[in-house]
Amino acid sequence: MIRFFVVACISLVLHATAARAETNPALIAECFDAEPRYYMEGIKVKGLGIELLQYISSKASRKITYRDEITPLTRAENNLLAGDIDIILGIGKTPARAQNYVIGESLFEQSTMAVVRKNDTTTFKTLKDFVDLGDRGVVLGVRSASVTTALKSVPGLVVDDAANNIEQALEKLVAERGRVAIYNNVNTPFIMKKPQFAGQLKVADLDFSLASSLVVTPQYIMFSKKVSPETVAEINGIIAKGKENGDIGKILAKYDIK
């Protein structure tokens, strides 16, 4: 009798656990190509985005999973639009993204920065300087990035957004296939430290007021429209509380983000 009771209890626990797993399936996030948000260390993905995902997952009723691989941002966004994944974390708002996804809580803010070749003796002050240069003032951006979207809205500015990440854009800059690379102050300094760029690049102090959205760009968590409003609200609440109590600030500080 006792043995039957124990077996029955175990069966009930297992059934309840399975039921919870079925009603609260894990959310799927995707790691996109943007160091230091995500980068490979051996066979594991590391970075700011991973630490933030793990923090949110530890407090949410639905856990967050991800594959240990890096995906181009364009593909990650297509997957989010199709509902094949549930979350992208750490990208800026654009009109297309506002239409395609559910924009969640902002996680941090980043500023725009410009990089030119160290041997370029021209002093650039505003984006208009590059507009005036025409095809000799090609701006190198990153495909799908909110910064690049804002740049492409500037009349007369020639923008090459073929690069999948800022490392590719800087490689094109070094190869003199553009006059300036413009991206953000989180990813760009991290990549500029790589050996292949040593002594070849410098930061240009540009006035970005010609495109006001470039001055400061909040970075958000974004959800597939297939994610329930209740889950979106819960995760937004976790992020808001984490910013308020300093938990998220501690994670950002590891990557020199204020």
From TrEMBL:
Gene3D superfamilies per record: Periplasmic binding protein-like II
Q: Where is the signal peptide?
A: 1-21
Q: Pfam family example for this protein?
A: SBP_bac_3
InterPro entries linked: Solute-binding_3/MltF_N
Which residue spans adopt a coiled-coil conformation according to this UniProt entry?
none
The residues covered by the Solute-binding protein family 3/N-terminal domain are: 26-258
Q: Which keywords accompany this UniProt record? A: Signal
**Protein name per UniProt:** Secreted protein
Q: What species was this sequence derived from?
A: Magnetospirillum gryphiswaldense
Give the classification, highest ranks: Bacteria, Pseudomonadati, Pseudomonadota, Alphaproteobacteria, Rhodospirillales
